[in-house]
Amino acid sequence: MMHPPILSPGRSLDSRLLTQGVLDEATIWQLLRAILPDLQQQHRQSVIYQHLQPSVIVQHANGQFHLMAAATSSISPEYAAPEQLQGQPSPASDIYSLGLICLHALTGVAPFELWDSTTHQWLWIPYLTDALSPQLQLVLAQMVAPQVSDRYPTVPSVLQALGLNHLIRMAPTATAPWQCLRTLDGHRSSITDLACNWQAQRLYSSSEDKSISIWDLHNGRLIEKLLYHHRAVNSLALHPNGQFLASASDDKRIGIWDLSQNKIVELLEGHQQAVKSIAFSANGQLLISSSWDKSIRLWNWQTGSELSHLTGHRLKIGAIALSPDGQFLASASHDRTARIWDLATQQTVQILTGHEWAVTAVAFSPDSQFLATGSDDHTIHIWNAATGELVQRLSGHAWDIGSLTWHPHNHTLISGSLNPAIKIWDWATGQAQSVHGHDDFITTLLIAPDGEQLISGSRDRHIKLWQPNN
Q1: pLDDT in tens, 219-259
Q2: d(Cα 374, Cα 425) in Å, to the nearest integer?
Q3: How far apart (Å, rounded) are the C-alpha atoms in residues 19 and 185?
Q4: How do the domains of the chain map onto residue ranges?
């Protein structure tokens, strides 16, 4: 909860708008300079405000603005972002709400009346009493973009666009177990997955922007973009020989890419809904996929033919993982369960129950003895993979778990969530250290076989390369 500074008595912005009318551009700049840093501070503490509306912004007699504590009001649908109303708030949701407050303050017209449902656009420019500077007009338009992928993802990105870089508050400087070496920037939307040929130092990243990028890890250079899918690319799998890459998409298809030509050579079709996760078998003969159609499918990826169809989950399946010994498959479902499958018999051997919400991530330990599951209930469970016994419950994330990976040489678990911090767990004790650097949901994590490099992808559109902070 925020603790606002002690200031002279003031009144809320909605009260001022009622009595004095619209704000001019200079006052809007003043409002943004005051409120944006407060929002960034909350986001760094893993708090999304969610209640932004004119009634929670107070202007004092000296002209200074501040944000009231979020608990003082309820959420207003008129100012809430579409993804927030669907139960998926992010820092970009607060940016959207603040943008709408500015439009209301500049025009005197409430947001419901500014939205044109025919063109699906905000029609606010005609209501301005005075022309705005082009810079502020462009920034406000992007702040209120209906699609989150078209909006500023973080407060620092808004401050940078406004030329207010000096107000950006830096991340904590306390010693962390990993330090960032390089940031890769090239996607136009959220990073969804990563795959790497560590020997060749080639990194592959997928994104909601429908593309796959190929990076040179030596220098961070973008080598090429692969385009084929016409919807978000959700998952990547690199063949054990490093010559082929598989990509899964919301367009229900799986593409097989020949990396010597960077062209699709086979297309796997059969899923009825978005394909969310894929993996090659340990010997590279099979490709395994999971989908929101509640099924897992095994494919002969060279011919494009489906070999078998595994069912059992009652709701959509968001993630799968293969055990390092190649014998078992784990699946995570919105039905609040995870399953462990014997690949030889293609039968379920364990049904893991205990999470209170959707299971969103699964990862086997390096020795295949344990399975970690992450959930929208903000917890991580560690299971004995052979018996299905719950051996540890990790809590510490403030938001949904999005990604899990194990350190290859010990039982350290690494997790990412809607909270922008990466957590490094000693899972036996339940203790965790945090690694900061991203400004939005950590969507994917990848660690090198020698454990000396960690790569993270985020909804902030960035990929970060980390090394141990010894």
Answers
A1: 999 999 999 999 999 999 999 999 999 999 999 999 999 99
A2: 13
A3: 46
A4: 10-167, 178-468
Cα angle 61, 108, 105 (rounded to 5 degrees) comes to: 45
Q: Is the Cα dihedral 269, 274, 280, 281 positive or negative?
A: negative
CATH says 178-468 is which class? mainly beta
- Count of C-beta atoms within a 10 Å radius of residue 398: 14
pLDDT of residue 70: 58
Please, what CATH class does the domain formed by 10-167 belong to?
Answer: mainly alpha
Q: How far apart are CA 461 and CA 213, in angstroms?
A: 12
Cβ neighbours around 347 below 10 Å, total? 10
Q: How large is the average pLDDT for residues 424-439?
A: 88
pLDDT tops 60 at residue 331:
yes
Tens-digit pLDDT profile for residues 335-347: 999 999 999 999 9
- Which residue in 458, 438, 456 sits closest to 448, CA to CA? 456
Distance from C-alpha of 24 to C-alpha of 31, rounded to nearest angstrom: 11
CB-based contacts of 81, cutoff 8 Å, min separation 6:
89, 92, 93, 96, 97, 148
pLDDT in tens, 39-84: 988 887 778 888 899 999 988 777 788 888 654 667 788 999 999 9
Sheet strand arrangement including 275-280: 275-280, 287-291, 296-300, 305-310
